[in-house]
Every structure is written in C-alpha cells, then in structure tokens.
# Entry
Amino acid sequence: MINEIFEHTADHMGKSIESLKRDFASLRTGKVTTGIVDNIRVDYYGTPTALNQVGNVIATDATTISITPWEKSLLSDIEKAIQEANIGVNPNNDGDFIKLFFPPMTSEQRQEIVKQAKGMVETAKIAIRNVRKDGNDKIKKLEKEKEISEDESKKAQEQIQKLTDEHIAKVEEAFKTKEADILKV
# Structure
C-alpha cells in the first residue's frame, strides 16, 4: 500500500516536471524553435486545431519559422491565429506559405522571458508540493485507520519529502539550463 503511494507520488511529480519542460518550449531563446507556436490554435472548419496539425511548421534558420498549410484556404486563418496569439511578430503571407521573422532579442526582452520562466518554475514547485501533501494525507489516513504504525508513517512521510526534494532540485536544474539558454546571445 505504501509503495503504491510512493509510485503515485513520484509519477505525478514527474508529470509536473514534464509539464514545466513543455511550458519552457514555448519560451523564446536566442534561436527560434517551433515550440514558440505550439500553443497556437487555428480555426479548422469550426474546430480549434493545433497549428502543426494544419500545416508543416519548420524553423528554417535561427530567426525564421516557415509554415506551409496543407490547404491553401487556411492561410488567412493561420495568419489571423498568429496575430491573435501575440507572439511578438507579424506573419508574412506570400500566397503559398507564411514566414515569421523574429528580430534579435534585446536584453530587456531576455530578462522578461526569464521572469516568465521563473513564474513557470513556481507553478511547477507548487504542483509538486500539492502532490507531496496528497501523499502525506494518504499516509496519515493509513495511520489513522491503524493499517500502519506511527513509525512507518513517519518513515513514509520522510520518504515522500525526499522525493519532493529530488523533484524540486530537477526543476531548479531545468530552470538554470533554460535561463542560460535565454540569456545566451
């Protein structure tokens, strides 16, 4: 029973880190990636659809993303979705595909993106702490129902705290890597 709680706790803490990494992918660094447009949804016959599911999205160089829709009729919808997403660039539509030209980032923009990353880190840490609380609550419930002893409960809670500390350290490490990536000119 306790091992199931540990597995559940570790699994959910791991999912918090995966979510953080997906969020980090949407942040701009010195070199543009297609992750910047991952959260953009296009109105595809009345259904909000991910941009990469209505066309081919590639980073052609360090400052350009090219989007080639599978249906030319979607060009204006894609253009509109990009403008509404407010990612800091205007789409250039040439009738066949859309290009996004990203200017080099200023130091102020880099600092602003680092602030956004810090906010994402705090959200991930809160999620991990909430998972810890859930795990500890389950352990305390087992102790209350006399299914485990007080000593087993204390050891289990210490184990959950170790898991929490390990996952918080992974979050911090991911942030340091991303911060260096953002600030690198």
